[in-house]
């Protein structure tokens, strides 16, 4: 189970991005000309990534500048840029301003505005890794949705934002860039719903018990046992929501998994098992019910099924050829 | 309720995995080749380290150095190519002639079998094959023909791996998961080390804790971030020392530190593969594996003959081919499910619980029962069973006797509920000619599963204009970068 990104992932990503943007975005503009009909004159590029400090203040300034540039594009200003590298889009999530950094936004003069996502995974025979393609398109859909919102905010028509993303990836084994134009309308609709459903941060914070925090657990001078105890105390007070998917991305997942195991929580196996055990508190109880322990009213439906499963399985074991 | 829920709960309480099969549903040949790969993060089409061997104590390791460099990557693969091709093409020499009415053809009597850690390794083998199989043999970057031959076999293996229950390449984590149920998530079960530890936890440990300890050491081919971080300074030093040279005389003496990095990783994966192979091999083989083995032999023979004559295969199917392939794979999967369940009582449990099968003790057999069929009286034997469970299958449903899953159907004629949730079921055979019937006093199982061939889908040769794509799938081509690496 690989955990954490390899440094070679980063170096490949950086090399590819540098290649795409070298010679004043020559390769990227060539792809735009070939596949989207950009004119030779449609080559005005602004690099917001390297023009501002790399901190929250920089993000705020870049978001402001992105908004101004998008306003020019929406008004079809003759001086409007054609490519914004490192556009920053902002939105309110759960009552807090969040900033998103898009790889590129590009627009042909008088044409549509496209979100571009640069990824270093290879596309061979016209196919990329479906999981990676999916997550890149989800990312692009988020930027496209926010671009629509920004264009609307500056008085433009959100329909100028294309419902297609430009996925720029290496073709074959090398790093030669290629561009795929992929529909993202459904993903944009999903992003809109997700953002609208985000819980309010202030409400969440208000529910945290006073004094709870990661300070004791993060104390590097503390010994392992006391730091673990601090984490467990925090989880006892605040609660957690472990799922096996946490193992792929969260450094604390193994602690939560150990707690779930100790409690016999069906979530250690996954959501499919939880659905088959309605009303049953833990796996040990499920085993008891399968052996005929009297069920409580909420357990009755699952208990009947568990007992039947056990009878049938044990009978199969007694069948000639059934014992492993 | 699935049987997996019961077994997962039992695994959690007992602290070790539970068997979901009483037989081994794949043939594991006497002389497989175990292969373990490691790749560099993000480099999906090249191998950083290759470990292979035909015995548990006979491991050979090849290390590329820096697999991002084409020459270095190909050098390591060339070392692997010789033993691999010898092993893979060997069984094709021994053939038998099969006669089908007026048609006769040759078929290899056995297959080469690769055993690997997981499905990621299968995918990586496919990637390597895709890279090598179409290499150019002329021009400044002409590749060794041996490398191209090496590529064509893995491409076939990866493509054939989609065939349900094929036995040419066996992923040990998939095989183990097919035979055991743990109280781990799918994500954790994907780790062969964790799965193996849960199946056989050492020293009285609970399977969960054994898996926790084992999963820390990955088995490849994808590296963890930390592993590549440890490798990075070694690789930098190697590249600095070789100073862009790729001559083996220069490179080989410099590989020591990188080999030392990969050797324990490859050894661990290799040992795990053989350990799981030995454990699963101890179980008796399911009878239906023989049919699939013959299908594998035929596919293998066709592949070798094709490789010797032409060798090129499509990398993308047309719409028509894709539709036919999906249909063929789905049919093959349905047959495999049926074969596994009718071979193995534990595999049938899921169908019994889902109301797709019934079993019980045979209490009456009326072999000479006759009734009017169309216009004349015909024999239609009746079999009555006493089932311990209530029968949830509606009357009139056609089922198949699991002892004869290719035979004629049986209609569920009558169901009578008995006290205590039991039921008495009468089945009627829908033909008057038969080889055998269930015997009184024995147990019999009837299910929706049958292994007879399914309806074969035919599509028009000319694709209608409504289904014609704007552009045809790309023709297979060399995917190498055309500049020096």
Please tag this protein with its features.
heterodimer; A: 324 residues; alpha/beta; 2 domains; 6-stranded mixed beta sheet; two-stranded antiparallel ribbon; 8 strands; 48% helix; B: 485 residues; alpha+beta; 6-stranded antiparallel barrel; 5-stranded mixed beta sheet; globular
Mean pLDDT of chain A: 88
User: From the helix content, strand content and strand pairing of chain A, which structural class follows?
Assistant: alpha/beta
Which chains make the largest contact?
A: A-B, 60 and 68 residues
Q: Biggest sheet of chain B: strands, sense, closure?
A: 6 strands, antiparallel, barrel
Number of helices of chain A: 11
Distance between the termini of chain A: 30 Å
User: What is the count of β-strands of chain A?
Assistant: 8
Ends distance of chain B: 56 Å
Beta percentage of chain B is: 15-25%
Q: Compute the gyration radius of chain A: what is it? A: 26 Å
Q: Which runs of chain A of at least 5 residues are low in confidence (pLDDT < 50)?
A: none
Note the total helix count of chain B.
14
**Residue share in helix of chain A:** 40-55%
Class based on secondary structure composition and strand pairing of chain B:
alpha+beta
